[in-house]
Write a structure and sequence with these properties.
Spore Coat Polysaccharide Biosynthesis Protein SpsA, Chain A; 2 domains; 10 helices; globular
Length: 300
């Protein structure tokens, strides 16, 4: 199925209770102007009609594209479900997509062209239209990046600058363990870091996908510390152990993560802890303002 000029791309789609969205998601893949594609869907024991809708789609849609669905009898969680998709992909490249997200025209072709032309590039990502599921209105664009080329140290220091459903990766560069299983919800940041390795990530400054915001988003921001927050902190711990040469970048990101938790934990202690890890301007200003206003003003 692969050839030099038109390599196979695996579109890995992870689903859980996406009955309202999965048909539109699949149609957005089939509408691409790149035909050497396989679709690998991994469903995490959805309690709605997601699986039935997918099976009906496979039965009734006339397409030469292979569509494979992997199901489970138990709910295994985000990372385990994502790994099932990962390890069933056969393409030279993997394009990641949530069952509630959408590809826009030209996405796959443009990403393949960059990967084929840059042998040291292991990740290609692009901007995303983050939209409200109910109204369909754009809430904001995911990125405001100015550069096009990034290295491992950048992905560590800057965090998840590449929205999950914007990524296409070189499969041969991905870690042998896939997504780290001890990060049950938010293992993607580490996956991108390990995939980029000694290569590069290239950013396309163009909106080529749509990320849907709805009440069931796994990483939706809450007022309490989430498993995703814990996973990001544990990623820092993992990196300190396994990528010590990037110690300064890791500590910078760790400090930023702690600062971002200031309204989920003790505000003052978060500011102090963030600054104890690494001096950063945001936390320093927040601390000064907090004291100058006699603890009345807190940065949102």
């Amino acid at each position: 199925m692969q050839n030099r000029n038109n390599p196979l791309v695996s579109v890995a789609i992870v689903t859980y209770n996406h009955e309202k969205f999965i048909t539109e998601c699949l149609d957005s893949v089939l509408s691409q102007d790149y035909n050497n594609v396989e679709i690998v869907i991994s469903d995490d024991n959805s309690t709605d009609n997601t699986v039935a809708i997918i099976n009906n789609f496979i039965k009734n849609r006339k397409t030469n594209i292979s569509i494979k669905i992997i199901t489970s009898n138990i709910n295994e969680g985000v990372t385990a479900n994502t790994n099932k998709a990962h390890f069933n992909c056969k393409g030279k490249y993997i394009a990641w997509l949530g069952g509630d997200d959408l590809m826009l025209p030209g996405k796959i072709r443009k990403q393949v062209e960059i990967l084929e032309s840059n042998s040291d590039c292991n990740i290609v990502f692009h901007n995303l239209d983050v939209f409200d599921s109910e109204s369909g209105k754009t809430l904001f664009l995911f990125s405001n990046l100015k550069r096009s080329n990034y290295q491992k140290k950048d992905l560590i220091k800057l965090g998840c600058i590449n929205g999950a459903c914007s990524n296409m990766v070189r499969r041969s560069a991905t870690p042998p363990h896939g997504f780290y299983k001890y990060l049950p919800v938010a293992a993607d940041w580490l996956y991108w870091i390990e995939t980029i390795g000694n290569g590069t990530a290239i950013y396309i400054n163009e909106v080529l996908g749509k990320y849907r915001r709805h009440s069931n988003n796994v990483t939706l921001k809450t007022n309490n510390i989430s498993q995703a927050d814990i996973d990001h902190l544990n990623t820092c711990n993992y990196l300190i152990k396994n990528s010590i040469k990037y110690f300064n970048e890791i500590r910078f990101r760790q400090s930023q993560i702690i600062f971002s938790l200031r309204n989920k934990m003790n505000y003052l202690e978060c500011l102090k802890y963030s600054l104890s890890i690494r001096i950063n301007l945001k936390a320093l200003i927040a601390l000064i303002v907090y004291y100058l206003t006699f603890t009345k003003y807190k940065f949102k």
